[in-house]
Specification:
Layout lengths: L14 H6 L3 E8 L4 H13 L2 E7 L8 H7 L8 E4 L2 H10 L3 E5 L6 E2 L11 E6 L7 H6 L2 E4 L11 H15 L5
Parallel strand pairs: 1-2, 1-6, 2-3, 4-6, 4-7, 5-7
Helix pairs in contact: 2-3, 2-6
């Protein structure tokens, strides 16, 4: 039988331990994401995989917010985050800091997620876009490339929080963070 483990049996870190722990060399950028539940979900997934930080841009809400907390469940208190009025400014800073920057978008010439190869020692930033308009074209243009999640149904996109989970998981695996 598979008995569910108690939270106390899982050996999770406290906030102080989390802040000092090694982080996945990945920054998640939210480009004008309007749903606070999506923002909270991204924080929670970022916590689960110890993402370096989350950058919230434009209209994307920032903590503290009740609706963010509903899905983040406190992850917004431990995951480092920043806010920029302009996603372009965030991209410029990330470039100065030496990140490889990829928009998660359906583009001509995009790389399928399963085919994306990470480079050892490289730090990455991924940009997830607005629920309706996606990543702004100017931001896509400023990126080093685009990564696309192949889809086989009738819809043309995935929810941004689902996309974030898939992207973060793939980067965690490919960067050797998941053993």
């Amino acid at each position: 039988m598979n008995r569910k483990r108690l939270v106390t049996e899982m050996g999770r870190m406290n906030g102080e331990e989390y802040r000092s722990a090694e982080k996945l060399p990945l920054v998640v950028v939210l480009d004008n994401v309007r749903s606070l539940h999506n923002v909270g979900s991204v924080f929670r997934t970022s916590d689960a995989f110890r993402v370096e930080r989350v950058i919230l841009c434009g209209i994307t809400a920032t903590p503290p917010q009740t609706e963010i907390h509903k899905t983040a469940l406190g992850a917004e208190d431990v995951v480092e985050w920043q806010h920029f009025e302009s996603t372009a400014d965030a991209v410029a800073l990330l470039r100065e800091q030496g990140y490889e920057i990829y928009s998660i978008e359906q583009c001509e010439g995009s790389i399928a997620l399963q085919s994306f190869a990470v480079q050892p020692g490289c730090r990455y930033a991924v940009i997830l876009g607005n629920e309706v308009k996606g990543v702004q074209q100017a931001v896509v243009d400023a990126s080093d490339g685009a990564i696309e999640i192949p889809q086989f149904g009738t819809k043309h996109s995935l929810n941004v929080s689902v996309t974030a989970g898939m992207i973060i998981w793939e980067f965690a695996k490919k960067l050797g963070f998941v053993k």
